[in-house]
Automatic annotation (TrEMBL):
This is t-SNARE coiled-coil homology domain-containing protein. Residues 22-77 form a coiled coil. Keywords: Coiled coil.
Amino acid sequence: MNEQTVILRKVLESLDVLHAKVESMDRRLDAVQGEVVALRQEVHDLRKDMDDMRRDMDDMRKEMDDMRKDMDNMRRDMDARLTALHESVIHVERKVEAGYVGTLELSVRVRTLERRVDGVENDLSRIQVKAG
């Protein structure tokens, strides 16, 4: 073998080694690109999940606001009922003190007031459970 053939063979072997390294790097690059695509998809999915969660949170906030409004309305209603009940009790007490109410009429009114008190207490219990 002459010297040029040996040099040429070594150059060809070096080229084969370089070609193998390039192919190896191409495979690694393809793998990394595949990972990048998968990670981008995962980021996309996570962003979508976050958007869904934000929408759910907004819906929950709206529901909470509605519940607060309902609670405020119920409290106002309860206050009005309790005020009316208190005024009725005062009115009955005044009549009793003045002697205008007979015992039968008084017991009927007392039962009526007791039922109203029970109704108000039940409403109050429901409000407290909802406020829970």
